[in-house]
Design goal:
TIM Barrel, alpha/beta, binds ligand PBG, single chain, two-stranded antiparallel ribbon, 8-stranded parallel barrel, about 350 residues, about 15% strand, 12 strands
Length: about 350
């Protein structure tokens, strides 16, 4: 009785009681992360050997064979889907991004190989945007110093159809052009791909945290060259980090246009947005823990400044706590292995 901090006032309230044992903490946990919550983004390139991404320790650009092995690993780990990002040779990048619509391009060949090996056991998600394919590194076509909307959407539709023809299960427009979800839905349906889902990057911010990804796919060099022409950022189509009401409008439009899943990106700096989107719409909501978020944790861990695995787990758990139903993260295999133990 002498230990009672507020004698007589809060006789039963000792919240530390439920933190006392590991089993009890597990039993009362409000959020439980599972490998089924994760999507593993993978970089594919047209070389025989794997090539590390310097700014993303532990991440490699893989040949198609390597993607097949990673896909097998995803399946064993209970990760439901992979997201494929092609690294396009500089010589194949053009102003009109023609390579994006070639059924023999690297992304399509990779999709066909994975689909042939694993059928429908593992989800295949493909990015729809032009940045890997444009000489200037932008997600859309550039005319007179502007990213043109509707002409870009036409190309995105053709890109989505060749990816669907190749066998991907989900197309994920990450370009942030207006009206692209509705146009993609129509184009897919016209080509008998009404079973292919759209995961729209609905609230995608113009973020500094995409830097390592752009290194990985080589679009940072292209964007860097465009910077000389005053076109070095994506702020005329990706959202201003200052805004969340606008994020809800973006999401509302994409749902109205037929998005099956909406995504918020980056994840860790947008937990409030994830929360608002899930609360407002109650639709399947994904979040993308992007390359820069991954790189920060890896860099600190490599310096011995953070417990890397614990920090990774925490960073992904809070994204789920904020309301995300699925999380794209480069930590996917690490975390799935850790959860399996
Ligand atoms: C391309 C795309 C980007 C990412 C996913 N798709 C980069 C960008 O918009 O510049 C970023 C992913 C990451 O940083 O991990 N449209």
């Amino acid at each position: 009785m002498t230990m009672q901090p507020f004698p007589g006032r809060f006789p039963d309230t000792r919240l530390r009681r439920i933190r006392r044992h590991g089993w009890l903490r597990r039993a009362v946990a409000e959020t439980v992360l599972s490998s089924a919550d994760l999507v593993w983004p993978l970089f594919v390139h047209d070389h025989e050997m794997a090539l590390p991404v310097a700014s993303m320790p532990g991440v490699e650009r893989l040949p198609v064979e390597g993607i097949l092995r990673a896909a097998g690993e995803a399946l064993r780990l209970g990760i439901p889907a992979i997201a494929i990002f092609p690294v396009v040779e500089a010589a194949r990048k053009t102003d009109d991004a023609a390579e994006a619509c070639d059924p023999e391009n690297l992304a399509c060949r990779t999709v066909r190989a994975v689909r042939k090996e694993y059928g429908d056991a593992l989800g295949i998600i493909c990015d729809v945007a032009l940045d890997p394919y444009t000489s200037h590194g932008h997600d859309g076509l550039l005319k007179d110093g502007q990213i043109v909307n509707d002409e870009t959407v036409d190309v995105l539709c053709r890109q989505a159809v060749v990816l669907a023809d190749a066998g991907c299960h989900v197309v994920a427009p990450s370009d942030m052009m207006d009206g692209r979800v509705g146009s993609l839905r129509l184009a897919l349906d016209e080509h008998e791909h009404d079973g292919v889902a759209i995961l729209s990057y609905a609230a995608k911010y113009a973020s500094a945290f995409y830097g390592p990804f752009r290194d990985a796919v080589g679009s940072s060099t292209a964007l860097g060259m465009a910077a000389g022409r005053g076109l070095g950022d994506k702020k005329t189509y990706q959202m201003d980090v200052a805004n969340t009401d606008e994020a809800l409008r973006e999401v509302a439009l994409d749902i109205a246009e037929g998005a099956d899943i909406v995504m918020v990106k980056p994840a860790g700096t947008s937990l409030d947005v994830i929360w608002r989107v899930k609360a407002a719409f109650g639709v399947p909501t994904f979040a993308y823990q992007v390359s820069g978020e991954y790189a920060m944790i890896k860099a600190a861990a490599e310096n011995g400044w953070l417990d890397g695995p614990q920090a990774a787990l925490e960073s992904v758990l809070v994204i789920k706590r904020a309301g995300a139903d699925g999380i794209l993260t480069y930590f996917a295999p690490e975390i799935a292995r850790c959860l399996g133990r």
